[in-house]
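FW: tagging you since you asked about this chain on Friday. Here's the raw sequence from the shared folder, copied in full. Didn't touch anything.
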Amino acid sequence: MDEAIRRWLERDPDPETRGELERLLAAGADVELADRFAGRLAFGTAGLRGTYGAGPNRINRLVVRETSAGLGRYLLATTPEAARRGVVIGYDGRRLSDVFARDAAATLIGLGVRVFLYDRCAPTPLCAYAVLARHAAGGVMVTASHNPPEYDGYKVYWGDGAQIIPPHDSGIAAAIERAASEEFPWCELDRAEREGLLTWLGQETIDAYLEGVRRLSVRPERTGREQLRVAYTAMHGVGAAVAEAALGAAGFAAVWSVAEQREPDGRFPTLRFPNPEEPGAMDRVIALARAHDAELACANDPDADRLAVAVRLPDGTYRQLNGDQIGALLGDELLASAPPDAAVGTSIVSSRMLGVIAAARGATAFTTLTGLKWIAAGAAKQTAAGKRFVFGYEEAIGFMIGELVRDKDGISALVAFCELAAALRARGISVWQRLGELYRQHGLYLTSLASIRLDPNHRGPPIGERLRAQAPTTIAGVAVTECVDLAAGVRRQGGREEPVDLPRSDVLLYTLADDARVIVRPSGTEPKVKCYYEVHETVGDETVETALRRAEAHLAALTRAHQTELQALQD
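HL: got it, structure written out here
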């Protein structure tokens, strides 16, 4: 380890992290040093994400430079005309994101790769958009999305405008390993600009994106938009200016932003955790909505690639919708005016309701692994087959409308949702009432997520292996009628077994006799599992609220019983 530390100190361009490492050495902090040098920060399909600090197992300027050198060399080796086509680089408002972005640019340019660099912090969707708009070979977005303030990250896009998927992740990772042991070129940005290797992206690109968002609208009429009242928060992120401009261009005049959360601030001073799905994270925007009697309280996460919505109920209170409810509402809205060859997509852990809606409208629905990168890949397959992709989403409030951006886009989703709410307002009904209409028409699908922490001292095989060895025949006292094992790539039903056309992944999906569904995703690094639950109820001669209470009770009972059963597997 001493040699690794010495070499790191020689290569690190940042006096702050060099000083940090020297202080750890002087203090004899062997455990901390061992953690920082135990390996490299893992590069996968989401790129890099880690806490700030010195060493290869943290995010810092040297790691960003080595990562950029590996990415650049991989692009040059695999992508025709990569140097000429170039790489788009964007960054969010975190403490060192702008520094990392410039380091990435100077490294790539040093390799002879042209760079398109945003001249300001900007939403993640703008990076993905510019990759397509510029016909670039790839893209880099420096962001840690909704992680706490001590995190930053490095997200990579391929030339198709989507996040990388295998085999590019492993190919880039191998190239980074080689770059970490080699010297790599460098080009100062002033020189790069003079030589035509650096192009700054600014308002012109943002305006082109905003025009693309406007063209996504399925409602050319603007009835009710000026009257719709919307409260919004950027959660100390980079979404406010673009989101407000997009809403204004779409005709929404009554929009209020949470002032103390409007400007980018990587410390996130008013939030315990900058994730709009976390309890309490939307308290301020809901309070603002209440103060202005707004129909909607909306939030983008800090890099503005996700959208959260709370809607006003008839009694004046606000209810936050989950990702599946927003997905059903947007999917139905977009399919209503879509052509017969339309296609929509969801991830395996998302609700089945969009598929039911699509079937009722004669559209194609497909399912992918978790992550918008897989939905983007599925959309490309549908397009190649002659279909028109109109919408995709995952339950973690990530939405993709059309192909303007081949990733999550919280800005276009915000505008589309407000357009839906305005059209409903013109009809005299609320968003909540429209969701009730969909439940009555297609069935009430209700979902939840529970992360279950297991005993870390338990000795025995991982939970996934135990579930495969002791395949449950019932869950919560209800018979299992189907099991899909994505690690094995098979579907088992009624004694029959058939292959499943999805990439291998450590996921188990169980369908029960009452049409409830349980999905288990064991963690490969921690003693816990993520469990996704879905119940399906019909709405009979009763109010939707009554059916919803019944579904909520069913969902809670299923969750409790299944967690108890998983815990018992350790005994």
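FW: The chain is about 40% helix and 20% strand.
HL: agreed, and The chain has a mean pLDDT of 94.
FW: great, closing this out.
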